[in-house]
């Protein structure tokens, strides 16, 4: 199958590599012509996947029109802040009705939409799906066993995409609860910043486990308020991804939190990283959604105050496990 992956960062390049090794005719779009040239000539992407050889058959282009016209299946792996614009640009050259799969984990800042909702707005008529779960790019590149979820309401489309992605030790599950899957993937990044802060401040494992567990309660509360199913958040797209992101030193969101916990400024951390940490932006939308649904979500609100510079990470620490302003504290709800 001819598949186009938009975005040649760590995850887009990893997914394009998996699909190429799965014998699909994959074309990856890189914003930077230098990255496209490097992938075509040297079969590497050193900025994002240092030390990993890419499959020789993976082709890259910096021409978005060419990338769009190639696709029988479109996979979108640009950061959520660039998601809508990128889809608008590919729209004129896209074949009608082809499925579009989002790899991106976050919420659109102004509209508060999930990425499959953005797909449906910009590309009406195209089936929209999300690929999400505990999927740290470098582990997948290294061929380590991993599980992921393809989320879409239509089981026929889900099964078809499942077949396209399934390879070797990458096990692909389906889930019809797109809301639960996307809210889990977006919110776990915010909780990972919180766990990172705890790590950076040198707290104990009990504290970190407390933040992860209460974080899961926030993922679940928001997802259910938005129409998702609680069981989704207990699975790969919720707890699975939350645990991977909160415990792994590879996570960029956790890294941001850890550096904040060590007293560094957010601007310095982001400038040095040169990679996306979606939780930093998604937290703004998450707080507005919490307000809309009348939810306490103290971890999310605390991280929002840190990210906006209202309080320091050290100040945040005392509030991370606060449950409810009225003093009602029950677990897990
Ligand atoms: N890296 C992972 O392990 C991983 C795993 C699962 C999901 N994701 C999600 O995938 C998405 C992409 O993450 P990533 O890890 O590949 O990020 P990255 O920082 O490694 O790469 C981002 C890519 O997007 C491009 N980009 C940045 N701004 C752009 C813009 N304005 N227009 C077009 N392209 C732009 C960059 O050039 C780069 O190629 C994120 O939403 C992330 O949460 C990442
Ligand atoms: O590096 P992060 O924090 O963006 O997390 C990567 C993946 O989403 C983990 O599943």
Automatic annotation (TrEMBL):
Q: Which residues bind sn-glycerol 3-phosphate?
A: 105, 133, 188, 241, 251-253
The protein's matches in PROSITE patterns, at most eight in alphabetical order, are given as: NAD_G3PDH
Q: What keywords were assigned to this record?
A: Cytoplasm, Lipid biosynthesis, Lipid metabolism, NAD, NADP, Nucleotide-binding, Oxidoreductase, Phospholipid biosynthesis, Phospholipid metabolism
Could you tell me the EC number(s) of this protein?
Answer: 1.1.1.94
One Pfam family here:
NAD_Gly3P_dh_C
SUPFAM superfamilies with a match to the protein in the record: 6-phosphogluconate dehydrogenase C-terminal domain-like, NAD(P)-binding Rossmann-fold domains
Indicate the segments forming the Glycerol-3-phosphate dehydrogenase NAD-dependent C-terminal domain, all copies: 177-315
Known pathway: Membrane lipid metabolism; glycerophospholipid metabolism
**Where along the chain is NADPH bound?**
10-11, 31, 48, 105, 137, 252, 276, 278
User: Locate the Glycerol-3-phosphate dehydrogenase NAD-dependent N-terminal domain: which residues?
Assistant: 3-156
Q: Which reaction does it catalyse?
A: sn-glycerol 3-phosphate + NAD(+) = dihydroxyacetone phosphate + NADH + H(+); sn-glycerol 3-phosphate + NADP(+) = dihydroxyacetone phosphate + NADPH + H(+)
Kindly identify the residues recorded as the active site: 188 (proton acceptor)
Main localization of the protein described in the UniProt heading: cytoplasm
Q: Which GO terms describe its molecular function?
A: glycerol-3-phosphate dehydrogenase [NAD(P)+] activity
Where is it localised?
Cytoplasm
Q: Which HAMAP family match?
A: NAD_Glyc3P_dehydrog (MF_00394)
Family indicated by similarity: Belongs to the NAD-dependent glycerol-3-phosphate dehydrogenase family.
**What is this protein's function?**
Catalyzes the reduction of the glycolytic intermediate dihydroxyacetone phosphate (DHAP) to sn-glycerol 3-phosphate (G3P), the key precursor for phospholipid synthesis.
NCBIfam families named in the record: PRK00094.1-2, PRK00094.1-4, PRK12439.1
Q: What is this protein called?
A: Glycerol-3-phosphate dehydrogenase [NAD(P)+]
Identify the coding gene: gpsA
């Amino acid at each position: 199958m001819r598949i186009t992956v938009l975005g040649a960062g760590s995850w887009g390049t990893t997914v394009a590599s998996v699909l190429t090794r799965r014998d699909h005719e994959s074309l990856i779009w890189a914003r930077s012509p230098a990255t496209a040239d490097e992938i075509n000539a040297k079969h590497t992407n050193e900025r994002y996947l240092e030390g990993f050889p890419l499959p020789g058959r993976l082709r890259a282009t910096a021409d978005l029109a060419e990338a769009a016209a190639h696709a029988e299946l479109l996979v979108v792996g640009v950061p959520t802040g660039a998601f809508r614009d990128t889809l608008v640009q590919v729209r004129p050259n896209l074949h009608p009705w082809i499925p579009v799969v989002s790899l991106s984990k976050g919420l659109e800042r102004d509209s508060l939409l999930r990425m499959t909702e953005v797909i449906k707005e910009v590309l009406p008529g195209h089936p929209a799906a999300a690929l999400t779960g505990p999927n740290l790019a470098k582990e997948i590149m290294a061929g380590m066993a991993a599980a992921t979820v393809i989320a879409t309401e239509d089981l026929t489309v889900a099964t078809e995409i499942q077949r396209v992605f399934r390879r070797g030790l990458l096990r692909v599950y389906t889930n019809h609860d797109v809301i639960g899957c996307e809210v889990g993937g977006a919110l776990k990044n915010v909780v990972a910043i919180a766990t990172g802060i705890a790590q950076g401040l040198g707290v104990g494992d009990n504290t970190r486990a407390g933040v992860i567990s209460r974080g899961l309660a926030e993922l679940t509360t928001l997802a259910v308020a938005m129409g998702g199913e609680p069981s989704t958040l207990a699975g790969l797209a919720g707890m699975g991804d939350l645990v991977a992101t909160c415990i792994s030193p590879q996570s960029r969101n956790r890294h941001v939190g850890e550096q904040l916990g060590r007293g560094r400024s957010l601007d310095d951390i982001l400038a040095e990283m040169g990679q996306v940490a979606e939780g930093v932006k998604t937290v703004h939308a998450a707080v507005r959604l919490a307000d809309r649904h009348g939810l306490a979500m103290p971890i999310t609100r605390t991280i929002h105050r840190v990210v906006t510079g209202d309080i320091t990470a050290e100040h945040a620490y005392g509030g991370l496990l606060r449950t409810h302003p009225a003093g009602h504290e029950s677990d897990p709800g």
